Amino acid sequence: MEKIKVSVHGLGNIGKYVIEAIEASPDMECIGVVRRAKSIGTNKLDLRGCGEYPSLAELEAAKGKPQAALICTPSRHAFEDDSLYIQRGINTVDSFDIHEDIASMVEKLGVIAKSNKCTAITAAGWDPGTDSVFRALFQAMVPVGTTFTNFGRGRSMGHSAAARAIEGVSDAVSITIPIGGGRHSRLVYVVLEKGETLERVKERIAADDYFSKDPLEVRSVPTSGELALVCDASHGVLMERTGASGLTANQKLSFDMRIDNPALTAQIMVSCARASTRLEPGCYTMIDIPPVALLNGDRMSLIKKLV
User: Fold this and answer.
1) CB 41 within 8 A of CB 287
2) Partner residues linked to 120 by β-bridges
3) Distances (CA, A) of 206 to 47, 163, 174, 179, 214
4) Half-sphere exposure of 2 (CA within 13 A, CB side)
5) Which residues contact 6 (CB under 8 A, 6 or more apart)?
6) Residue 272: closest CA among 62, 69, 56
């Protein structure tokens, strides 16, 4: 069986785990990593033997055209990075996590993907992503009711990236703390740039869309080395729904998981890269994708095993 050829764009917290997940997938092959020119030659261990290239053009010249690219850069760069590949007719998968902008992303990427006869899958993480699928299934099972999604306690990669981008911040990590009823607080540890104050940085973080809706605490730590001591990759979710099935009330559903955040996000993205080769041109989220398209193996064998 010919393997699906994929590439990785970016080698941050998610990118290195994406490479591992591809390596563990018998039907997939990583043909290279595209990253910033100044980063070439670093993180050799994280590359796991994959070649690294400063541009898509150089990757294609050396290894050929990938069937799918996994976009492992911050969400605020996702549309630009997705477009780079889609315009070359290459499928993309990203873990875009700005919930209120996902519908707009689907519309904009859908136009580009259809015109270039390829597939884009956006918001392919665990939330948004697989949690979105559980929310959809919960609603199908209990159409009238209320769902609470409670995250953490754990590190949020999207919020951490947003905090690191704040003026005056040298490094940062954001911890999500569940309050209950689908509400959360944010505990942000920051390493300040020289001459910056914690008060000014906290004001900038509080004004950012990632943080403006939740209770916020910002603490300063002296160095990135000390930041690593609180930079736990564990995370989780408890999703609960109560409501009615038909005319029968008091139905209670629950889904609970505790995970390594970047590793699970990476695995979901790799499964979506597989699905991208089985879908018609356009842009999709995970609630659009048949579960069987995510799995390695043929449809009838999977039906016999899982249904």
Assistant:
1) no
2) 92, 283
3) 35, 10, 12, 18, 9
4) 4
5) 22, 28, 29, 30, 31, 66, 67, 68, 69, 70, 270, 273
6) 69
Question: Which pTM was predicted?
Answer: 0.93
**DSSP string of the chain, one letter each residue:** -PPEEEEEE--STTHHHHHHHHHT-TTEEEEEEE--GGGTTS-HHHHTT--EESSHHHHHHHH---SEEEE-S-GGGHHHHHHHHHTTT-EEEE----GGGHHHHHHHHHHHHHHTT-EEE-S-BBTTBHHHHHHHHHHHHSSEEEEEEEE-SEE-HHHHHHHHTSTTEEEEEEEEEEEETTEEEEEEEEEEPTT--HHHHHHHHHHSTTTTTS-EEEEE-S-HHHHGGG---EEEEEEEEEEEETTEEEEEEEEEEEEEHHHHHHHHHHHHHHHHTTS-SEEE-GGGS-GGGGSSS-HHHHHHHH-
For the chain, domains (ranges, CATH) are 4-128+261-306 (3.40.50.720), 144-245 (3.30.360.10)
The CA–CA distances, whole Å, from 257 to 130, 153, 239 equal: 12, 12, 9
Q: Please answer whether residues 89 and 117 qualify as being in contact, where contact means their C-beta atoms are separated by less than 8 angstroms.
A: yes
Consecutive 10-residue runs of the chain (307 residues): their mean pLDDT?
A: 95 94 98 94 89 97 98 96 98 97 98 98 98 98 97 93 96 95 96 96 97 96 90 92 98 97 97 98 98 97 97
* Res 26: pLDDT: 97
